[in-house]
From TrEMBL:
The lineage of its organism: Eukaryota, Metazoa, Chordata, Craniata, Vertebrata. GO terms for biological process: rRNA processing. The keyword rRNA processing applies. Keywords: ATP-binding, Kinase, Nucleotide-binding, Ribosome biogenesis, rRNA processing, Signal, Transferase. It comes from the Eukaryota. It comes from Erpetoichthys calabaricus (Rope fish). This is Adenylate kinase 6. Residues 1-17 form the signal peptide.
Length: 124
């Protein structure tokens, strides 16, 4: 229980530290979970998705083994990050992007850059 409380305190400290930086918008956060970031911080949220057979090989090549490999695969199978994101933010700002191939990566970068450019036009 003490460890859980310590982790919560750290999370709240991180959020407090980022609050002033996030207030003006235009920031990008890359994180593997989203359920503790305030909804007011985000105009759009992207969730990268990967086919499980590709993900397994990708993670294994990075040296993931045992429980860490299993947990990551299970999260993708059960759409854990996507579900958390859908519960944490307005549905209209959450977008899934396929991340299976280098072509997907290029397409995702293009799509995100177009969104950023439009956001800047709309908000400057």
């Amino acid at each position: 229980m003490a460890l859980f409380i310590s982790l919560l305190l750290i999370i709240f400290q991180v959020i407090d530290e980022l609050e002033d930086k996030m207030i003006d918008g235009g920031m990008i956060i890359d994180y593997h979970s989203s359920d503790f970031f305030p909804e007011r911080w985000f105009h759009i949220v992207f969730v990268l998705r990967t086919d499980n057979s590709l993900l397994y090989d990708r993670l294994e090549s990075r040296g993931y083994k045992g429980k860490k490999l299993q947990n990551n695969i299970e999260c993708e199978i059960f759409q854990t990050i996507y579900e958390e994101t859908m519960e944490s933010y307005k549905k209209e700002i959450v977008h899934q992007l396929s991340s299976n191939t280098p072509e997907d990566l290029e397409r995702n970068i293009d799509q995100i850059m177009k969104w950023i450019e439009q956001w800047m036009l709309d908000n400057n």
